């Protein structure tokens, strides 16, 4: 039998080191590992919960400033919220500022740990989060999974994986005159930022700006919509509890819910360094005017009238696949989706086929609520709208289109649900033969309305797509790469998906639009950097060898007779040397030598 000392000592040493290292890795705790924590869910998510059905559905409570919260699918009361005041907004900003001073000093590893902690919580509590979102906004569980959970965990994943790289100091090229310097851009925290977000995705819209802002080293004030005030507290606590679990102050994230008069105090506050606004164009005008008082920059993500262009070269299998994508794109969250498909523009060879195929599918859609639903009930295809305030306008737009030659295949009016008569339901609608001259083709609907338009050619389809004031997202479906790429180039939009719908956000490409759909971007590297101070820095490359000094002829005050002419010749010589061609550089050198 071989003895231990017969082995190569170096080999034994290496094996021993490897064993020790393996044990060290095995036993040591990952400093970025997710920390466990818990957030108590609202009582209303418990199976069998039933609330009082309000006789009058309104957020306002007569004689008070309270916000009445209710489930839009059933009319059941969710309780009342005491809204934030100007004083409480001031206090929230002050607390956030104090906490941010310490948070800004944290490392990217410490910030990643917080995001990993949030990610684990979201993954382990998907059903609760989805149910809370469904109760407060009326959507279905599948809508919540796709529009609340999936996109949130993707944003967390992306920032965890790529956030540090996106905010790492970035070297920039110089030039001949600055060859003795090196140059970079730094991405530093702004301080306290704010986000005023819409109600259609109450979890994702609230948490998404939190993820980017805190990773960039900021504190954030998040103002959720009054329409979804009930869920804001629970969703915000997911972020604040993750911070506490990782040993940080919960004041880094502040949630406020208030009426518009107090919201103006927030958006004009000098303590806010940046605002992300998600909402409608009319409200955006007020927000931007308010922010201008403090010269606060605003990222504005508004509505869209997103076109889906269906080319006529689809195979049979692609036709059915695309039809299903269009159904989801239109009816996701009852059409209350900023990048939902609002116009389907089809070429002649597929136009009639879409009508024949989609008519029975749209007629078969079943509106409903997850509240009080049992596994034995028929599945729910489409949820409620957040409010019935826009139903009369919708019915008027549809009637106007029909009067101008459009054909209403089904729907077109509000729907009274037999089990939930107080719910805000609009019948799934299929409207065909729509033209650009109709108001319904120009105005954002934010409703479960499938609007089909006919185009004679690709040229015509692109003209139709570009005919509205909006330009947020777009999609194109076809087999010819040449044709789909032409649409990508020529359609006016901030985002385009080819043979798919809204997937640019699923890989955290920059999100935003042009024209009447807003400006600025969130998501991805561009969004992360937008909530930073982009600081340009130039340093000496070889401080022991070369530093900037002002040459004698240009040193102030100029000295001697003809000093002005000598200074001018030197300045010209420097410019020629730095930017002229070979002859120009020689000319510049002569200017300098001749001084």
Automatic annotation (TrEMBL):
<dbReference type="InterPro" id="IPR029510">
    <property type="entry name" value="Ald_DH_CS_GLU"/>
</dbReference>
<feature type="domain" description="Aldehyde dehydrogenase">
    <location>
        <begin position="65"/>
        <end position="537"/>
    </location>
</feature>
<dbReference type="InterPro" id="IPR015590">
    <property type="entry name" value="Aldehyde_DH_dom"/>
</dbReference>
<dbReference type="InterPro" id="IPR016161">
    <property type="entry name" value="Ald_DH/histidinol_DH"/>
</dbReference>
<feature type="active site">
    <location>
        <position position="301"/>
    </location>
</feature>
<dbReference type="Pfam" id="PF00171">
    <property type="entry name" value="Aldedh"/>
</dbReference>
<dbReference type="InterPro" id="IPR016163">
    <property type="entry name" value="Ald_DH_C"/>
</dbReference>
<keyword id="KW-0560">Oxidoreductase</keyword>
<dbReference type="InterPro" id="IPR016160">
    <property type="entry name" value="Ald_DH_CS_CYS"/>
</dbReference>
<dbReference type="GO" id="GO:0004029">
    <property type="term" value="F:aldehyde dehydrogenase (NAD+) activity"/>
</dbReference>
<comment type="similarity">
    <text>Belongs to the aldehyde dehydrogenase family.</text>
</comment>
<dbReference type="InterPro" id="IPR016162">
    <property type="entry name" value="Ald_DH_N"/>
</dbReference>
<protein>
    <recommendedName>
        <fullName>aldehyde dehydrogenase (NAD(+))</fullName>
        <ecNumber>1.2.1.3</ecNumber>
    </recommendedName>
</protein>
């Amino acid at each position: 039998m071989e003895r231990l000392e017969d082995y190569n000592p170096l080999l034994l040493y290496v094996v021993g080191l490897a064993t020790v290292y393996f044990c060290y890795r095995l036993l040591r705790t990952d400093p970025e590992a997710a920390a466990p924590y818990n957030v108590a869910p609202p009582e209303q998510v418990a199976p069998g919960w039933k609330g009082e059905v309000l006789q009058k559905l309104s957020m306002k409570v007569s004689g008070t400033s309270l916000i009445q919260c209710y489930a839009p699918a059933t009319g059941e009361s969710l309780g009342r919220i005491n809204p934030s005041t100007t004083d409480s907004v001031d206090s929230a900003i002050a607390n956030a500022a104090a906490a941010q001073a310490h948070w800004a000093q944290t490392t990217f590893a410490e910030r990643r740990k917080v995001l990993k902690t949030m990610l684990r919580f979201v993954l382990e509590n998907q059903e609760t989060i989805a149910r809370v979102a469904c109760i407060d906004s009326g959507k279905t569980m599948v809508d919540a999974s796709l529009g609340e959970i999936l996109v949130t965990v993707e944003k967390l994943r992306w920032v965890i994986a790529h956030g540090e790289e996106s905010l790492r100091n970035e070297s920039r090229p110089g030039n001949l005159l600055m060859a003795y310097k090196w140059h970079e851009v730094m991405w530093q925290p702004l301080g306290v930022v704010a986000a005023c977000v819409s109600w259609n995705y109450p979890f994702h819209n609230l948490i998404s700006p939190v993820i980017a802002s805190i990773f960039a080293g900021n504190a954030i004030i998040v103002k959720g919509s009054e329409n979804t005030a009930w869920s804001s507290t629970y969703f915000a606590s997911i972020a604040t509890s993750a911070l506490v679990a990782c040993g940080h102050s919960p004041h880094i994230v502040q949630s406020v819910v208030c009426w518009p008069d107090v919201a103006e105090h927030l958006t004009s506050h000098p303590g806010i360094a940046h605002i992300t606004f998600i909402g409608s164009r009319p409200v955006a005008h007020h927000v931007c005017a308010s922010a201008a008082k403090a010269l606060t920059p605003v990222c504005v993500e508004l509505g869209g009238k997103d076109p889906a262009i269906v080319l006529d070269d689809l195979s049979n299998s692609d036709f059915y696949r695309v039809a299903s994508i269009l159904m989801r794109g239109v009816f996701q969250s009852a059409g209350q989706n900023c990048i939902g498909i609002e116009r389907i523009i089809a070429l002649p060879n597929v136009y009639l086929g879409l009508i024949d195929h989609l008519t029975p599918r749209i007629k078969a859609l079943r509106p409903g609520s997850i509240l009080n639903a049992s596994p034995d009930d028929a599945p729910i295809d489409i949820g409620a709208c957040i409010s019935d305030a826009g139903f009369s306008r919708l019915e008027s737009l549809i009637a106007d289109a029909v009067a101008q030659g459009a054909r209403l295949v089904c729907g077109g009016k509000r729907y009274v649900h037999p089990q939930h008569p107080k719910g805000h339901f609009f019948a799934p609608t299929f409207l065909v033969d729509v033209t650009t001259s109709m108001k319904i083709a120009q105005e954002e609907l934010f409703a479960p309305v499938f609007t089909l338009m006919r185009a004679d050619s690709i040229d015509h389809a692109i003209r139709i797509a570009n005919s509205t004031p909006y330009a947020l997202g777009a999609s194109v479906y076809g087999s010819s790469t040449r044709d789909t790429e032409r649409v990508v180039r020529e359609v006016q939009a901030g985002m385009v998906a080819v043979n798919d719908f809204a997937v640019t956000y699923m890989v955290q490409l920059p999100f935003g639009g042009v024209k009447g759909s807003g400006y600025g971007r969130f998501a991805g590297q561009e969004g992360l950097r937008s909530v930073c101070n982009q600081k340009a820095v130039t340093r000496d490359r070889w401080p022991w060898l070369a530093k900037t000094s002002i040459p004698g002829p240009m040193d102030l005050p100029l000295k001697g007779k003809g000093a002005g002419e000598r200074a001018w010749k030197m300045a010209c010589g420097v410019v020629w040397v730095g930017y002229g061609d070979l002859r120009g550089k020689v000319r510049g050198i002569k200017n300098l030598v001749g001084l």
